[in-house]
């Protein structure tokens, strides 16, 4: 049986003894009349799984005849509103909205596209592709093709068309052959045959890639990261490195992205919200542990320093 390449510890789990009707009534009371009880809203929505939040939304719609998201939007504002709406959105739909936002307007946010697309399994990609077309009546791969170009566009397109082998059975002989192919296309010659990199990194399973990278170190003497940085540059390099990092440690990849979102002047709140919300039921606890190992400070302390008020309290609630 093939194994899923992601593993980790979540910070948000389904609440025991969950009752959607009770939660819905409490939330309605917290937003009724003058003033809003933000404490109750935060406590309930950060301590429920996404599936449970969808059940609360359904009760609002079918029994209370109200739209919970509209109520939240009318009561809250700014990044506090943004993160609460994200929590109330099915995860694949939320990520589709993030992809759409990354391609809206005059420029394209390639970093967001790379983070979302390059970190996903075939199963997750399939859900996102299906949801995107349902939401926007346009194939995701078509829009990504129109917003990106060159090897980056080709690489993302291959991932979105689910070219990756689903099975993590390891073939040592094939791993050696692919490692030699990568070496021959880069360090082993003058110039770089860039297509070799995206074809292998988009097609091979994460388990097989892990073995290929081990073999590459033996063939070349350099790590695959060193080779890629020597041979390539720009967003295409960043996309390939994202896959390499997710092969070796998804938690490390997301810890670094979270650090970057809070590093320097200003905070990249879109990235901060996207990762904390979307990874909370997958591996956010593992990401927290990795963050502390890498940066010698806690993710919680960084969020406390970089975010204000109720927005901060929601993020801290999700961090556990």
TrEMBL record:
Gene3D superfamilies, per database record: Annexin
A single Gene Ontology molecular function, please? Answer: calcium-dependent phospholipid binding
**Lineage: superkingdom:** Eukaryota
Residues in a coiled coil are none
Q: Does the keyword RNA-binding apply?
A: no
Work out whether the entry's keyword set contains ATP-binding: no
Query: What keyword terms does UniProt attach to this protein?
Result: Annexin, Calcium, Calcium/phospholipid-binding, Repeat
Q: Which PROSITE patterns match?
A: ANNEXIN_1, ANNEXIN_2
One Pfam entry for this protein is: Annexin
The free-text domain remark for this protein reads: A pair of annexin repeats may form one binding site for calcium and phospholipid.
Extract the PANTHER family matched here.
ANNEXIN, ANNEXIN B10
Q: Which family does it belong to?
A: Belongs to the annexin family.
Name this protein carries in UniProt: Annexin
- This chain's source organism reads Cryptolaemus montrouzieri
